[in-house]
Amino acid sequence: MRYEVRVIGSAGQGSILAAVVLATAAA
After folding, report:
1. pTM as predicted
2. How confident is the model at residue 25, as a pLDDT?
3. Rounded to whole angstroms, how far apart are CA atoms 27 and 11?
C-alpha cells in the first residue's frame, strides 16, 4: 500500500483530507 501526503502552502488541511480519502479508497 502506498500512502502519499502532499501539502502545498495554506492548502494544508484540504490536501491532507484529500490524501486520506484517496489512501483509504486505494487501500
Report:
1. 0.39
2. 79
3. 24
- The cell for 23 is 489512501
The answer to whether the beta carbons of residues 16 and 4 sit under 8 Å apart is: no
* C-alpha cell, 16: 491532507
How many residues can be counted in the chain? 27
pLDDT in tens, 1-27: 566 666 555 555 666 777 777 778 776
> What is the end-to-end Cα distance of the chain in Å, rounded?
6
Q: Under a CB-based contact definition with an 8 Å cutoff, are residues 15 and 6 in contact?
A: yes
Residue 2 region by backbone torsions, left for phi larger than 0, else alpha for psi between -120 and 50, else beta: beta
